[in-house]
Specification:
Mean pLDDT of chain A: 83
Strand content of chain B: under 5%
Radius of gyration of chain A: 24 Å
Radius of gyration of chain B: 20 Å
Number of strands of chain B: 0
Number of domains of chain A: 2
Distance between the termini of chain A: 37 Å
Helix content of chain B: over 70%
Distance between the termini of chain B: 27 Å
Number of strands of chain A: 14
Order of helices and strands of chain A: EEEHEEHEHHHEHEHEEHEHEEHEHH
Largest interface: A-B, 29 and 24 residues
Number of helices of chain B: 11
CATH superfamily of the largest domain in chain A: P-loop containing nucleotide triphosphate hydrolases
Order of helices and strands of chain B: HHHHHHHHHHH
Number of helices of chain A: 12
Oligomer: heterodimer
CATH topology of the largest domain in chain A: Rossmann fold
Structural class of chain A: alpha/beta
Low-confidence stretches of chain A: 307-316
Strand content of chain A: 25-35%
């Protein structure tokens, strides 16, 4: 691990004609970190990734990958990046082996090491058995894996994945998240998604972007800590909210519907007290769920005030 | 790196049946014409033998054959070049090239080299027909070489303009039709030269096939070669600029 940031983005802006897709974006990523890029559809996630990989020119600002400017020395900068775009760039009429070999050659891997690189990336992505099959005949999940294999074949320090789990079934999703976690141990990974649990499961850093602006940036750990602990309870014979508030440690009560309540508390969990009270006063407790969907709450809270914007502007 | 892209270009070209069918169809058509020209020559031969300083078999059979080949290929080359960049755009695979550590110039040169290789195979196959005459008669090797080079340059020019028009769109049909239109325009552009006598020289100089014609007659003029080379360079540079522009839009 080096102290210098691997990816450094400064004051990045991008305009399509007069509309701005991203405004004044700045962030950096260190080696061995996984950054989750969150945002509603059309928030500018893909645009940012296209700029990071040199597929789009920024209107203003700078991108440095391992110290190489993407505009001034694109060849060196691109050598450091593996990129899986939104639509995996696959040649359907080629076999997996042919395709990966071509990608390896494009990334300037020497002839002697190509076969080895091929084997390693196939093995990492679970493609060892389908090497001879045509990409066009593979299922969507396997195609997505080929896309990832293509991005990691030259063992780049930075891996950029644009919505890697879109259109996959839950088992494939789990496999790919697993893979991303594994990759995150050696490489820096930037991952865009609108699936929140994915970020919580895989990322070290989370970044929320809305309307092209960075509205939240923090590490997952601080995010989890900063969240006030809460739990949801369901009672068949509920008392008044006032009664619930008088329970030990409970600071705030929110009614979800007539029978279910969200309790916020400090310090020790009041679960024990709730169960006891429920028995004594016959509240008939039937449900008790410790709160956990913190990121989702945060996400909705941060992005909701502006959901009434014209979708045409954002869908660029 | 250029070679890698060229290899891939050739591979995709020959993976689809299109390239094979085009090669076969051209070979059949021109083979038939070649035989027809030969028959003509045999009819003329008794009369020719009584004259002095007569044109040889190279002039009577081979030059007209390749003059016709140029026109047939003018209609067929757009089908070869149309998918080159348009298809990569449509399938989003251009991203793979753009995000790899290679420059736009290398991408375009690689694509062009792939197309040039196809052209080379095509012209070499066609040259086998006149070469078969060696069995029965001596041929003018200098003229044959001039024809060969002229065909290569002409078809490479077709390829260059086709590549450029393919980079403008993600629709193969549009690329093919516009290439077809541009090539025909460059063929017929000198047909007005008699109506516009003042600009006659300029206009007939622009015509692609005009330069081909002089080289078929065995006049190897460096101005004609330069014309082709400039033509190719201009369209390759335009293609590079077009791909670069894609990042700004």
């Amino acid at each position: 691990m080096t102290s210098q940031a691997v990816v450094q983005v400064e004051n990045l802006s991008r305009f399509y004609q007069n509309q701005s897709a991203i405004k004044n974006l700045s962030f950096s990523l260190n080696a061995g970190e996984v950054l989750g890029f969150l945002g509603p559809n059309g928030a500018g996630k893909s645009t940012t990734m296209k700029i990071l990989t040199g597929n789009l020119a920024p209107s203003e600002g700078q991108v440095r990958i391992k110290g190489f400017d993407i505009i001034e020395s694109p060849r060196e900068a691109k050598q450091q990046i593996g990129y899986l775009p939104e639509h995996p760039p696959l040649y359907c009429e080629a076999s997996v082996d042919e395709y990966l070999k071509y990608c390896a050659q494009l990334r300037g891997i020497r002839r002697q090491s190509i076969n080895k690189a091929l084997d390693v990336s196939k093995q990492q992505c679970g493609l060892s058995d389908v090497g001879r099959r045509l990409i066009g005949h593979l299922s969507k999940g396997y195609q997505q894996r080929v896309g990832i294999a293509q991005a990691i074949i030259h063992n780049p320090p930075v891996i950029i994945l644009d919505e890697p789990t879109v259109g996959l079934d839950p088992i494939q999703m789990r496999d790919i998240r697993h893979l991303i976690k594994k990759l995150g141990q050696e490489h820096s990974v930037i991952l865009s998604t609108h699936i929140l649990s994915e970020v919580q499961a895989t990322c070290d850093q989370v970044q929320i972007i809305q309307q092209g602006e960075l509205i939240y940036h923090s590490s997952i750990e601080t995010l989890n800590l900063s969240q006030a602990p809460s739990m949801t309870i369901g009672l068949n014979q509920p008392p008044t909210i006032e009664q619930l508030k008088q329970l030990d440690q409970v600071t705030h009560v929110k009614a979800i519907d007539e029978q279910r309540f969200e309790l916020f508390f400090e310090g020790e969990s009041p679960a024990q007290a709730i169960v006891q009270q429920s028995v004594q006063q016959q509240w008939e407790l039937y449900e008790l769920i410790p709160g956990q969907q913190s990121l989702e709450d945060l996400f909705i809270e941060l992005t909701q005030d502006e959901t009434s914007v014209d979708p045409e502007v954002t869908n660029k | 790196m250029i070679i890698t892209i060229a290899q891939q270009e050739i591979r995709t070209l020959f993976l689809s049946p299109l390239a094979w069918i085009i090669l076969a169809v051209i070979q059949v058509l021109l083979g038939y014409m070649f035989l027809a020209q030969l028959d003509n020559f045999f009819l003329l031969q008794p009369q020719l033998s009584q004259l002095d300083n007569v044109p040889g078999v190279t002039d009577i059979v081979i030059a007209p054959l390749f003059s016709l080949a140029a026109i047939i290929l003018l209609m067929i080359m757009p089908l070869i070049t149309m998918r080159s960049i348009a298809e990569e755009k449509r399938n989003k695979t251009l991203t793979l090239l753009v995000s790899s550590p290679i420059s736009m110039t290398e991408i375009v040169l690689g694509k062009f080299l792939g197309l040039f290789f196809f052209v080379f195979i095509l012209v070499s196959l066609l040259m086998l027909m006149p070469l078969s005459l060696f069995i029965g008669t001596p041929l003018d090797i200098g003229k044959l070489l001039s024809i060969f080079i002229s065909m290569l340059l002409l078809l490479s020019s077709f390829a260059a303009i086709g590549l450029y028009l393919s980079s403008l769109t993600d629709n193969q049909t549009i690329a093919a039709v516009s290439t077809f239109g541009a090539l025909i325009m460059l063929w017929i552009i000198d047909w007005v030269s008699e109506v516009l006598p003042r600009n006659q020289e300029v206009i007939s100089y622009l015509s692609l096939l005009q330069h081909h014609q002089t080289m078929l007659e065995g006049i190897f003029n460096s101005a004609d070669v330069a014309y082709y080379l400039i033509f190719i360079t201009v369209f390759l540079v335009l293609t590079i600029r077009q791909l670069d522009r894609g990042r700004l839009l």
